[in-house]
Amino acid sequence: MSDRHTFADLVTLESRGDDVFVPTVYPGADAAFVFGGQLLAQTVRAAMSTTAPDLTPHSLHGHFLAAASPSGPLQYRVSRVRDGRSFSLRQVDADQDGRRVFTATVSFHRTGPETEGVEYQLAPPAAPDPEAGFGAWSEYLTESDYFSVFDLRELPPAPEGPDGTREFSRRLWFRAADPLPDDPAVHASAIAFASDLGVTIAASVTAGLYRRASVLTSLDHALWWHRPVRADAWTLLDLESVSNSHQRGTVRGTVHTADGSLAASLGQDTLIR
Q1: Which of 7, 13, 80, 267 has the lowest CB atom count within 10 Å?
Q2: Partners of 105 in the beta sheet?
Q3: Active site residue: 218, 232, 238, 241, which one?
């Protein structure tokens, strides 16, 4: 970035009234388009600015409609679709220069002692300690100042098995590069940002087009938050490419805390040419 900003700065939004919000800082224009994780994170932050403090996000379903320029201002307009006793729904539309570039619905759940129930989750994937000294497998995470707001430790894709599939096509540790405030909205937004860290690359690896695709674009993105997590502590993102067909790649993934708690799940469809 042209000036040193933290992740908390990136999701600090200014209200323009009528549930319209604009970012207060923008990363430097060192990329061809706005990173999708920024759109996801700022969408979550805008939606949470219109909900009660005891509501936590549990799902996001978004569509990337057009490339946003990193050199132009963005505007997020929130529509209060529903406020119920236990669940609330918001639609967030991101516009730039009069053009819609992203739209999403974000659902919220009022949680507390009354919602406690049976706990179950899949076992976390195996990964070396993030402090073990390994760095980045791809150049992708060092090419843009977007990613300087996170510390990242990246593993190479798993090798192909006898049937040609891979156990994972992307696996990395992440944490905010600076301490974050206790505000749950900031941590939920950080998980949204990190959920898009190289999902397109995960799809391109199994398509045999890593670093060779002329078009590599996110189409839609889904995210489910399961359990609280501090995004300024080491957190594991595990991505598995499940299908490549018709020039599209579908990837699913999980987000785990360092002690193995399943914090979030995600899915994304990507255009690959």
Answers
A1: 80
A2: 61, 91
A3: 218
CATH code of residue 160: 2.40.160.210
Q: Residue 216's Cα: distance from chain center in Å?
A: 17
Whether 268 is catalytic? yes
Question: Which structural domain, as residue segments, surrounds residue 73?
Answer: 7-111+128-272
Does residue 97 have an active-site annotation? Answer: no
Print the SS3 string covering 16-31.
CCCCEEEECCCCCCCC
Cβ of 82: how many Cβ atoms within 10 Å?
Answer: 11
Measured between alpha carbons, how far is 140 from 149 in angstroms, rounded to an integer?
Answer: 15
177 domain residue, yes or no: yes
Structural domains in the chain (count): 1
- By three-state DSSP, how is residue 240 classified? strand
Band the pLDDT of 2: cuts 50, 70, 90: very low
Q: Which of 88, 241, 265, 268 is catalytic?
A: 268
Apex CA 105: angle with CA 146 and CA 112, to 5°? 95
Q: Is residue 123 part of a domain?
A: no
Q: Which residues pair with 57 in a beta bridge?
A: 108
Please indicate, yes or no, if residue 118 is contained in any of the structural domains. no
pLDDT in tens, 90-114: 999 999 999 999 999 999 999 888 8
Contacts for 223 with CB less than 8 Å, ≥ 6 apart: 40, 59, 60, 191, 192, 195, 264, 265, 266
Is 91 part of the annotated catalytic residue set?
no
Taking Cα atoms as reference points, which of 173, 137, 133 lies closest to residue 152?
Answer: 173
* 116 belongs to a structural domain: no
pTM of the model: 0.94
